[in-house]
Every structure is written in C-alpha cells, then in structure tokens.
Hints:
Number of domains: 4
CATH superfamily of the largest domain: PAS domain
Largest sheet: 6 strands, antiparallel
Shape: globular
Helix content: 40-55%
Number of strands: 6
CATH topology of the largest domain: Beta-Lactamase
Number of helices: 13
Order of helices and strands: HEHEEHHEEEHHHHHHHHH
CATH class of the largest domain: Alpha Beta
Distance between the termini: 15 Å
Radius of gyration: 22 Å
CATH architecture of the largest domain: 2-Layer Sandwich
Amino acid sequence: xxxxxxxxxxxxxxxxxxxxxxxxxxxxxxxxxxxxxxxxxxxxxxxxxxxxxxxxxxxxxxxxxxxxxxxxxxxxxxxxxxxxxxxxxxxxxxxxxxxxxxxxxxxxxxxxxxxxxxxxxxxxxxxxxxxxxxxxxxxxxxxxxxxxxxxxxxxxxxxxxxxxxxxxxxxxxxxxxxxxxxxxxxxxxxxxxxxxxxxxxxxxxxxxxxxxxxxxxxxxxxxxxxxxxxxxxxxxxxxxxxxxxxxxxxxxxxxxxxxxxxxxxxxxxxxxxxxxxxxxxxxxxxxxxxxxxxxxxxxxxxxxxxxxxxxxxxxxxxxxxxxx
Length: 324
C-alpha cells in the first residue's frame, strides 16, 4: 500500500471520527515508518474513545447514544445477501443495489472470510455451530469495522426458504432515558411508555431511585476511580462517605448508571489501561502492573491473560511484529 493511499485512509477515518463515528479502523501494512506509527495511534485512539462511550456521554452529549453501529443482513444458506437495512449502505459506503445479491463474504477481510466459510460449512453439514461471530467488515473506502455479529436462523415453509438474519451491534446506550427514569421514578411520556427494566431478580428487590444530585455524586466517584487506577480501592462505605452519599445508593446506583459493579468497573478500566500501555509503550511489565493497580507481576499477567487470552509478553511481541 502506497504512502499516499495510507494518508488518504487516515483522512477518511479522521473525518468519520469528527462526525462521532469511532468504529472505523485502518488496515495495518508491513511498512515501518511514521505513517504506519500514526495509523497505529489512530486505531488505538478510536478503540479507546469507543470504549469510553460505554461509561460516559461526552460525545454527542445533546442526544442519546442508542446504537453506534446497527446493521442487518438477511442471507441465504449459500451466503448470498437477500436484503439489508438502510444503515448498511451508510456504514459500508455502498448503494443497496451494490450489496444485495452479492456474497456476504465479499464485504469481509481475509481472516473473516475464513471464519464465515467455516460457519456456512457447519450449517450445510448440520453441525452445531455458534450463533455469534467476530467479523471484520471492509468498506468501499478500504476502512475496517471490527464487529460482533449475532446470527439467527429464519425458517420458511419449505427448506429452500430458510435464511439467516445477521445483526451487527456495537453497543446500545440509552443514558438519557435511563437518567430520566431514575430521576422521575419511572418512565415519562416522551419515552412512549417504554420503561427501563431489569430481569435480574436481585436488582428488582433492591429498588433505588436517584435524583440529579445522587447522579452527580456517583459520577464524581466514577471519575475518582478513573483518576486513581493505581491506588487501592477504599471500601464502598468509605468511598460513599467521601462523596457524600451512602453505600446503598453508591452500590446500586453505580450499577444502574454504568451497567456494572464498582469493583468490576475498576477491574475493567485497569485492564483497558494496561492493554494500551503494553501495546503502545516500552515500559516494563512491573511498571505497568504498578500503574494499573496490580500487586505483583504474576497477578497482573494471570488477570491479563484471563481477560484477553494472551499474556502481556505475547501481546507486545505480536504488536511489535506487526510494526516491522
């Protein structure tokens, strides 16, 4: 890939990021120059911002973030696309007539094509196959979109009418509706009667209603955790007292606002920071473990491998080999 073409892709991705679309990535090349270093940084930045959107709404703050990516494909058992939703055209930069009737795998990268072939072969051989796949789409402009794909089988009257419905969803975030629900104690008319529910019986037993001041305090506690990932987490009681709330509201209010417990949130953020430091720097793993709040390198290594499937050493070697 020429330098001019790589710079063109960088421009395309930055324009998409400027529009609040952080799910695009740039394909890495075998080059080892400043442009390739810039591509690496942009890809990591996109991943970092996209992950941050799950926890805070500083992007597109005037509207609810519902779906960063949402694509639907109806596909026959031969892998041919029968129908799509309009968002597919917008995201992949193709017209509908350029997508429908084409092979689904023609919009995937090389590795994902192999995964898709294996999935289709499993269908034809009547084997039990997974209902979800991690695939990477390639847009008309050559940008990459790593995606989690969920697949459902659609049955017709006859065998020839069987099709697949493949849905791509990055994440769903209804922060504004949720905060209105917490403050108002239920749903309002603007939500058309849609009530935020939780099927977890334990959560149902622990009802919590938060006002705007409660939400502000919980956000401050969250920001404190983000700014002090290297420090030991105080007890929930001490953390609640520090920000002028109580343990009950902090525990269950945090879960309502951010979809996870305080301890799980802290663990995930520590690992996310560790992954960035392992990939993008030359600091020792002992230093990274300290900066991310791990007591020892073995604990850090075991936790890292449990989360990402590889050790920090393996990930750094892989990252460095891609830059060569």
